[in-house]
Design goal:
- There is one protein chain.
- By secondary structure, the protein is of the alpha/beta class.
- It has two domains: about 5-15 and about 110-225, HAD superfamily/HAD-like (Rossmann fold, 3-Layer(aba) Sandwich), CATH 3.40.50; about 20-105, no CATH class.
- The chain is about 50% helix and about 10% strand.
- The protein contains ten helices and six strands; from the N terminus they run E-H-H-H-H-H-H-E-H-E-H-E-H-E-E-H.
- The longest helix is centred in the N-terminal third of the chain and has 22 residues, at about 40-60.
- The radius of gyration is 18 Å and the shape is globular.
């Protein structure tokens, strides 16, 4: 273990793009669905989304459970909502996985693509670790080519939501490098910083100044400097 930086691992939601702006767009779409789908269906979709998100947060507290998180997140939400699991999956697919994609390109953090490309050009490996599936979002952001690794917490090789260190350590295993050779960039101190630190990685919070136990990169343009090199 020599600690020399070899890779940068990043969160996706709220890190690669501005999540509050996306939430505003999605709130507008939910409001318009009252007219397109009818009030009853729109209210039902909103209720199911709230239950799904709540149950995922409860699963986060379990760490690395014996049950499959990919299945449990839907099964538990369906049980609480008293609906068929297929209905939960359909609502999540529409509102969390599909509808947001068209907005991501315009909501990408300034300098994200350029900075990550420059870091890759310096020989650093670039990857993402998210609690949600990554491929479609990374593609919508125009970042697929720069990624050497994409991991989701519900992958069978991980099966643990952040801040459990399983996903962070899986990235190290895939890259065949030590945790102290990886910097993790995220937007949440309680999830991203906590998980990275437990795994033994350096933690960087995008959009913020440095704080207790983490470095801060106010912008992506500043990330290269924070990592110890010249700005991209």
């Amino acid at each position: 273990m020599n600690g020399a930086l070899q890779a940068v691992l990043l969160d996706v939601d709220g890190t690669l793009y501005h999540q509050p702006a996306l939430r505003a767009f999605m709130a507008a779409e939910l409001a318009s669905s009252f007219a397109t789908k009818g009030p009853a269906r729109a209210v039902r979709d909103l209720r199911l989304l709230r239950i799904f998100r709540h149950e995922r947060e409860r699963l986060r507290r379990l760490g690395k459970p014996a049950e499959s998180l990919e299945s449990a997140q839907y099964a538990r939400a369906a049980a609480v909502a008293h609906v068929d699991e297929h209905e939960i999956r359909a609502v999540v697919e529409e509102w969390i996985y599909r509808r947001p994609l068209k907005y991501l390109g315009r909501l990408a953090r300034a300098g994200c693509q350029e900075t990550l490309s420059a870091l890759a050009g310096r020989g650093l490996r670039i990857g993402v670790l998210s609690d949600y599936p990554t491929a479609d979002k990374v593609e919508a952001l125009g970042l697929t080519a720069v990624m050497s690794l994409q991991l989701c917490a519900t992958d069978t090789s991980i099966n643990a939501f952040k801040p459990h260190p399983a996903g962070f350590l899986e990235a190290c295993r895939r890259w065949a490098i030590d945790a102290d050779q990886v910097a993790y960039v995220g937007d949440r101190v309680d999830v991203d910083v906590a998980g990275a630190r437990e795994a033994g990685m350096r933690a960087i919070v995008i959009g913020r100044q440095s704080g207790d136990g983490f470095s801060g990169a106010p912008t992506f343009e500043a990330l290269a400097r924070v990592l110890g090199g010249r700005s991209a």
